[in-house]
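Input record, target 12 of the design panel.
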């Protein structure tokens, strides 16, 4: 289970090769996350979590998309490096981040 930030600064959950966005809180403070491909693929994939532990996983109607996940991680890395190293040029930040991305 891993978290990254969306373009709007909200948390996204990465688990088992899928990306999820927060949907709502359920009973007993559990969090319900819906598949990031909910609108595009009409995917009903969901995760129910409590205290960073997966309680329930509902299946997806599409394959894992590791390319989108890696791209989102790279964008997050670049944004983090840019905010932490304000004295670096854009080129230096991207160069540094590209060596860190697998």
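The sequence produced for target 12 reads:
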């Amino acid at each position: 289970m891993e978290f990254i930030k969306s373009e709007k600064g909200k948390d996204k959950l990465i688990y088992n090769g899928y990306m999820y966005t927060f949907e709502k809180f359920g009973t007993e403070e559990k969090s319900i996350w819906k598949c990031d491909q909910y609108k595009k693929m009409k995917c009903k994939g969901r995760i129910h979590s409590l205290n960073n532990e997966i309680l329930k996983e509902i299946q997806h109607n599409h394959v894992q998309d590791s390319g989108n996940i890696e791209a989102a991680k790279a964008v997050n890395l670049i944004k983090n490096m840019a905010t932490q190293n304000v004295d670096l040029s854009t080129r230096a930040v991207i160069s540094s981040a590209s060596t860190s991305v697998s």
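Residues 7 and 76 are 9 Å apart (CA to CA).
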